Amino acid sequence: MMPMKHLLALIILLSSVHSVTLVLNSAQEDNRPYAILHLMNDTPIECFITDLPLGQKKYTCQFEKILTNRIASQKTPLVQIEFVEHEESFEIIITPTFDSKMHNMDVALHESIEAPLAPRGRAKHWAILIYQELPFVNPVIEDGINFPVAYPQFQRPSVGALDLNGAPIGYVRSRDINAYLDMKRSYEAGHFENVMEQAQEAMMLYPQTIFKSEFALYKIRAMDHLLDVDEANPFSTLDRNDVVSEGKAWMKNFSSDENIAEVLMLVAKNYLKMGFSSDANYFLDILITEYPENRFTKWAILLYADTLYNGTKRAEALRLYNDVLYTAKDLDMASEAAIRLAQNSIDLGKVNEAKEYLVKILNANAEFLLKDDTAAYELAEKLAHNRLEDIAAQISESLLTNKGRAHPLYEVLLKNTGLWYGESGEVSKGHLYLTRYQTQFPEGEFSVQVQEGLDRLFFELAETNSTKLTAYYDTLMERYDNEISEKALVEKAKLLHKEAKYAQVLELDGLLRAIGDVSLAEEALQTLSSTAFEQTTLLLKEDQCQGAVMLIERYGIGAQLQEREKLFECLMRLSRFDAAAEEASAHVQERDLRTRLAWMMRLNQALVKVGRWREVVKISEDIIELGVLVKEPKAKEALFEKFFALVRLGENERALEVAQQIMRTLPGVYKSVEVYLEVMRYAKAQGNDLLLEIYANEALGVQERMNVFLFTPELEYETIQALQRLGKVAEALEIAVALIPRVHSPQERIRSQYYAGELSAKLGKVAEAKGYFKQCAEAVEESSWKGVCEQHLELIP
């Protein structure tokens, strides 16, 4: 028999990272040529056979994919191959030149009780035998058994287990098998220290066991697991060199073992962990060269890429991640690569890009990703852990399809699908799955988590009944002691604010300020501030200064208020003079001159209260000047503040000048009496009774004209004494007599009667003097002046 020649090989790329492979080989048997055409695809395809004249056949295979690279038809002496493209699919038409037969290579003979004669169904691998004369058959036709022959009552033939030398294993119940199974169970249970001990003991007890490679391999695996979990433990007796040494020994002793790729990966991994990149690269090269499609090769590439990513070659790491993602046929490898790429996008702040990327992978490889329920669920968990809950929810939702409550993953999938949809913003879907969980598993393992998830979603549901909302918020605040209760508190405060129940919101101040979550705390403070603003505005309108100023001082909202004049008035009323001065100062540059003047006058009042006398003098002069400009008579009253400021500053001469201005320009303003009294005190201190008389008469005149006697009787007493010193007794008597009916206090009436009697006596008006002294002496009330009056009565004949 001649060796088979390789005539044709085509790899046809399809959309969604699939490919079709065509391989044509030819050979001769007993000088009779023949060929075998292999057609291989990633997924099962269906091929149809069409009979042609002269006993020949045509084979049409259909693909539900689109070609990404245009392929020309191929023609050889043995076969013609055509590629026919359609809108959403394409066909490969194979027309052999000679006789041919098609075989389904996915069919295993030992899986059926009869030998199949004709290709049937769908397959990933089809083979077409092309021949002039059928090879390997006896051309002499003899009578024989007509296939298929069925033996339903008999077992299929089986050779059974063989050892490495090809001999049947006859000691099924031997102890090394039990030791192997015990070790395997320990490994699957995660008892890796036991695995190491069991493996070492088994290799010592059974040195000739056929499981020797397995015992050594499980020992290496266990060591690697223990180092991954507890590498930082200073008391650990293991280190990475142990895995490397054991791995090298294993490869030397079992070089043809099917697990060689895994051991190569473990050795490379541990070299990388120790930082020996050059040593690791040696084993990586072997993996990539000898086992390019092996899952452990892909895993080793990922580990190497991790080293690059955490170093300075991030771009190269990303290229390797992409390579693994698109070439790996193992779900774990694809998942790991996808997560790494997504995490890179997240690290760069490109969360949406990460989501779009993983959605494309999920859409392109959904069947592949979801074929292993457990692995797919683990992938979903990893994605959720990396803040990609929406994609995780899609995977878990797909896994739920066609699964009943009896499935071991059903309950956790139902729970997580709801939680992940809720966390990704798909409120309706999240609520649907979580309520379904409560219906199907009212006492389920995850009932608490599901209830918490539903409570979180409550904030996003479109409930409008404020009574229900308030009650539920209160329930959540009692039920939880975490961000849910804090969220409920904030939402309750916002609802009360919306309903203008400002006082109730402010009652929650202490609770709102105690919120720990940063974003919720900020939201709570904003709600408090907004509420305080609204409440302060109402209080100012209602003239409730005490409450308004308290809120302003607590929440710092003064700058936001519209009622500025009212705010100033309240500050003055509550003796917050510095704050009032600050408020007025902010408005003294208003564009409107009349508004500016009004604020200047308010500022002057506040400055007087805080005793900033120099500023009072200056602003008073500005007020008077601006008042002339805008023709505002009331501006002249700033002379009063200027006068008193000058007095406080000890600038008495300037103060007298201002008093004269007041006398000329504000004769009808009652406040001028205060100015005149201040001048009278100054004149008395200076012994200037003439000056005192002038301003006393002015003060008395103002009181008389306005019929307001706020400064009686002190004003009259000072005037009477000054007139007496000036020898103007008659004028003094006139003032004393006028004073008697104006005083309301009995003691002051007694005193004024005494002055009237004394002055009358000095003028020789004995009868009038006696009458005043008698009224004084006969008063019921007690007074020191009453005794003086009695003494004068005794002296009058």
Going by helix content, strand content and strand pairing, the class is alpha+beta
List segments where confidence is low: pLDDT < 50 over at least 5 consecutive residues. Answer: 13-17
Number of helices: 35
Percent of residues in helices comes to 55-70%
Distance between the termini: 177 Å
What's the total number of strands? Answer: 9
Radius of gyration: 54 Å
What is the averaged pLDDT score? 85
Oligomer: single chain
Strand content: 5-15%
Major sheet, described briefly?
9 strands, antiparallel
Choose one word for the global shape: rod-shaped
Describe the 3D structure.
This protein is about 60% helix and about 10% strand. Strands 1, 2, 3, 4, 5, 6, 7, 8 and 9 form a nine-stranded antiparallel beta sheet that branches. The chain is built from 35 helices and nine strands. It is an alpha+beta fold and about 800 residues long.
Summarize, please.
With 797 residues, the chain is α+β, with helices and mostly antiparallel strands. The chain starts with a strand and ends with a helix.
Which features characterize this protein?
9-stranded antiparallel sheet, alpha+beta, 10% strand, 797 residues
Task: Summarize the SSE layout with pairings.
Layout: E1 5-14, E2 18-29, E3 32-51, E4 57-63, E5 74-75, E6 79-85, E7 90-96, E8 99-104, E9 123-131, H1 175-188, H2 192-205, H3 212-230, H4 240-253, H5 260-274, H6 277-290, H7 295-309, H8 314-327, H9 331-347, H10 351-364, H11 366-370, H12 373-385, H13 389-400, H14 410-423, H15 427-440, H16 447-458, H17 466-479, H18 483-498, H19 502-507, H20 509-513, H21 518-541, H22 545-555, H23 564-573, H24 577-585, H25 593-610, H26 613-630, H27 638-648, H28 652-665, H29 672-686, H30 689-706, H31 714-725, H32 729-739, H33 746-762, H34 766-777, H35 784-795
Antiparallel strand pairs: 1-2, 2-3, 3-4, 3-9, 4-7, 5-6, 6-7, 8-9
Helix pairs in contact: 1-2, 1-3, 2-3, 3-4, 4-5, 5-6, 5-7, 6-7, 7-8, 8-9, 9-10, 9-12, 12-13, 13-14, 14-15, 14-16, 15-16, 17-18, 18-21, 21-22, 22-23, 23-24, 24-25, 25-26, 26-27, 27-28, 28-29, 29-30, 30-31, 31-32, 32-33, 33-34, 33-35, 34-35
